[in-house]
Amino acid sequence: VPYENHREAQIINRCWTVYSLLINAFSPADTFHLGFPSLVETAIISSDLQINLPVEKGFILLLREEYEFTMHNLVINSYSYNLIDNSGNSILRCDRLPYHQTDYKRHKLTHPPHHLHDKMGRICSFTGELKDFIDLVKKVIGPQG
Question: Residue 52: pLDDT above 50?
Answer without folding.
Answer: yes
